[in-house]
Amino acid sequence: MSTEPTSIEGSVTPPISIESENSGVGASSQTKGTTGKRKPTPQRSEVWSHFTKIINSEGASKAKYNYCQKEFCWDMKKNRTGSLKYHIGSWS
């Protein structure tokens, strides 16, 4: 067996350059001239129909329950929405 690639008669494969690789599917956003900022993600949890997001004077994220006005600590990476769901369940 030969290690040389076989070719079909009459077909020519153009050489692949770095520029043509980046212009395909999944190309980085920097080649398209965008700033690289992400779009805001939609709210996926059902608790946000019962809570309002607020930021206090210290810059901490909080969530205020719309019915009893109680405030809860909320952070997208630390304490998520579990305690908010539990509070809604206690009012049902």
Automatic annotation (TrEMBL):
It comes from the Eukaryota. One of its GO terms (biological process) is regulation of transcription by RNA polymerase II. One of its GO terms (cellular component) is nucleus. Residues 1-10, 19-30 have a biased composition (Polar residues). Residues 1-46 are annotated as: Disordered. One of its GO terms (molecular function) is sequence-specific double-stranded DNA binding. PANTHER family: OS03G0264950 PROTEIN-RELATED, OS08G0208700 PROTEIN. This is BED-type domain-containing protein. It comes from Gossypium schwendimanii (Cotton). The lineage of its organism: Eukaryota, Viridiplantae, Streptophyta, Embryophyta, Tracheophyta.
